[in-house]
Design goal:
single chain; L,D-transpeptidase catalytic domain-like; two-stranded antiparallel ribbon; 377 residues; alpha+beta; 10-stranded mixed sheet
Length: 377
Amino acid sequence: MTLPSQQPRTASSMGFLQGAYRRKFFPIALALIGAGGVVGATYFFSQGTDATPTADKTATNTVPPTVVPSTPDAQPEMPEIQPSSATSNVVMSAPAVAPAPTSIARVPAVAIVGPAVASSAQPTNLQLPSALALAETDPVAARLALTQLLDRNEIAPTDMVVTMFALRQLNAQLFYSPAIVANDPTMRVYTVKSGDSLSKIAKNNDVQADWRVIQRINGMRSERSLRVGQKLKLPVCAFHAEVSKSNYELRIYAGEGPTRVLIAAYTVGLGELNSTPTGAFMVRPKSKLINPQWKNPRTGESFAPDDPKNPIGERWIGLIGVEAHNQGIKGYGIHGTIEQASIGQQASMGCVRMSDGDVEMVYELLTEPNSTIVIAP
């Protein structure tokens, strides 16, 4: 989820992580870290009845260019990365000491062009203390090392919160800000030309995400605030999602394979009676909708766009199975909700439900045909 604005990042924020690790101020209270997590709900569209919503308006990619200078825009906020509070193999117990700070470090809203840090950005075999220490000198390599530790299941339950907090701090600089860090393999720098729009920039530079991501990570109040000569960060890889049903968690990764990096994690709601299907999925063609209208397949009740009672909120990302056991399954999706209290619960008709703020970010990152979505038990 997004968080309120934060103070500028300082060396002491990552120093806290390293010092806390050395002093063994673990485990951090998961309940306290997750207290700010947004909760919500979603409705599932049954396999037998394809009740995919329709859109009153879909995402438009036409953005008029603006070539006059503009003032620096507000800094975008990054999603919170935190372990789920649901029952899982990651169990957090209440600590006897204060938890790690939950604020996200901020960086200047003006793009920093040039080699702020020269990164190795190579696969590593670092242990957690070394990966945390690396954050100050090589944030790109530190993010990769922490992601690899998570992927190898080498993070102890008592170290999970400090690991996620470190990733939040790193992504606040590397992904969710206009700051440009040299040798970050997930980003490239683009100089705005006359006649550009965000959609044109995304298309011409093979950005495998919605053009709104460019606006978000570059801290632009409006897509119309482009100016000639402006330096923009552009993502250069596809984004993928993994859902852990046991953890009630959806994670977003940039890239794939051994060099992928974790950039966000959200608590989600799932299908009642364990009805959310598992396996590999892709974004169903032409199924990403903004402000969809929806008809409940069980009751027949219809909800118009902008209806405050519409259960699926403001975003819909349709899914389609691509494995032998789920091939062709459709009608399921990832979407928003008006029932916040059901996030972290089995309460939907089978879909993955998120808070509206969280699903907006996921909507911008997952695309067809680039993204895969893996739902695990």
